[in-house]
Amino acid sequence: MNEIKESLRNIEQTYKIFQQQQFTFITALEHTRENAHDKIKPVSSIGQVQTYTDHYCNNSTDKRILLLFLSICSDLNKLCQRLESLHPGNSVTNALLDKCKTLVSHSNDLSGIRAKYPHDVVNHLSCDEARNHYGGVVSLIPIVLDSMKEWVAHTEKLPRNMLHSVSARKAAVYNQAELPIRRVGDRDHLGRPAFITEGTQTYISLTEKAREREDRRVKLKQLGGLGRAIRKFLDGPWRPPGKHAF
Hints:
The protein is mainly alpha-helical and 246 residues long. The chain has helices at residues 2-19, 22-35, 46-55, 60-86, 91-103, 128-156, 168-175, 198-203, 206-222, 225-235. The radius of gyration is 33 Å and the shape is rod-shaped. The two termini are 60 Å apart.
């Protein structure tokens, strides 16, 4: 979660730089839309800005600010994927994440969204035409950032067992030295059945088995003659090496 919050802070810092150049961004969109002969419809998607940048941008200053916008959108998209993999979520966090994923989709229609107070990005647009054409695209990033911060706030209130984690038992098993993989039907040199599958092997610790045998031996020893009789009964009669009961 700390890495998520750090990534979110980094994106916010980059957005502050972008926000200070909003007029440059609008000017770049004006230029590219004019080059594309596309001045009637509003700028309504990230994909549209990408097309303007790739095919209709002839100015290095315009290209720089457009690429900065696209870079922030890309970072938000990647962060959405990380949020999705962090925990299974509940109805609140899933709804917030779905909203973010939809907004940062390249083909999503942004023309109807507007960032509200305390954001003033729409108010900084110079005229009604700019508001009608660019209100959605300038509102995108602050709305997504707000939704992601809300996602983090809700997620931190969830029980810790909701988060993806490896149990202590599994972690201990995974940290053990690798054991040779044996197949069905194999037997070790003492004639005992080997582990059946890799899955079974994962859940059985040789250390635990050895400890259990040692505990049983100590308890039987404490019983004296009775313990020797019990052990003799459990072990069965002595057999020559290589001989079996059948």
